[in-house]
Fold this sequence. Notes:
- It contains ten helices and twelve strands.
- The strands form three sheets. It has a five-stranded antiparallel beta sheet with strand order 2-1-5-4-3, with helices on both faces. Strands 7-9-10-12-11 form a five-stranded mixed beta sheet, with helices on one face.
- It is an alpha+beta fold.
- The relative contact order is 0.07.
- Helix 5 (about 125-165) packs across helix 7 (about 215-225) and helix 7 (about 215-225) crosses helix 9 (about 250-265).
- It folds into three domains: about 1-120, PAS domain (Beta-Lactamase, 2-Layer Sandwich), CATH 3.30.450.20; about 125-205; about 210-355, 2-Layer Sandwich (Heat Shock Protein 90), CATH 3.30.565.
- A hairpin with a 5-residue loop joins strand 3 and strand 4 (about 95-105).
Amino acid sequence: MENKTQQISALIELNDELENYFRNTIIPQLFVDANMVLRKFTPPAMKQFNLRLDDVGRSIEDIRDNFRFHSIMENIQQVITTGDILEKEIQTTDLRWFQMNILPYIIEKGSRTNGVIITFVDITSRIRDLKEQEKLISEHELLLDTISHDIKTPLTSLGLTIEMLKKIPEKGMARFPVLLEKVENSLLKMKDIIHDLTDSRQFNNRYKAVEELLNFEHILEDVRLTLAPQILESGTVIKSKINQSEIIFVRRKLRSILYNLINNAIKYRDINRPLKILIDVSQEEDFTVITVVDNGRGIAEQDFEKIFTKYERIALDVDGSGIGLYLIREIIKLAGGKITVESELGNGSNFKVYIKNGG
């Protein structure tokens, strides 16, 4: 009798602790039992999803519209049936993004799932920031490319012209030295501006190109969140097989490489079948190899080189600038690596990025 009293007392204490946790946590959480009935929710969940106290005891089916996420019922049932944790990013109908985790609530006796605990973390601002960061990176890379390739060449020609002018006799040209000095000063000023822009990453932390030890999964997660609307709209399924997690490279450059490859796969998907992307990371001799394979529309062999040419586009039915793959190849080439492509029209593409170990 004493043992039973102690057990009841312990259960009451545990229940009080659980109630206290649900009252005080700042995270929106729900507890749904195995019969799909809402049993508990935290105050933030009440505010976030317009729940009322009398919603406790109601079927999730009856209040599913509160969550503004069409597949929540199926997701809950999946976890109850399989006992597996489900983690995914969702966008609600009010255009907010959440990291949703559904954990099975397993009873030790019989090892059966008696319900689920659902946690929602608002990541709307993070996705907005990532998208803005990706936009800034793309614009900055495009600016650097334009300066490096479109301006430096005529400046070099101008410099050679000035050297030739210096050798012209000055007889009868009293103002020639003054004019020449002004041209030289203008040239030096232009070179200084270009130098400051192209090397700004050495002085400006915002664009500082510093190699560091990166976790590939984290980079992939950032890119996946940045492209979350496109992934959701297209129904794209991204799977990864990461045998080598750590990579020494410049963070923003690795993100740009991965972003462009996945974004291109989504843009050039085959509308007649769901898009699947497989990302593999492995080691080959002195290189870390990132492989991005898709089942999209594919590329004709005669266009393999063309897709890496600046401003060259082989398909005009999708938006694009023709700069993404060009920038990827330039970034990788400067780092001592390479990018290859294997593809066939109608059968998808296979891009391999070789990053030299140690940067």
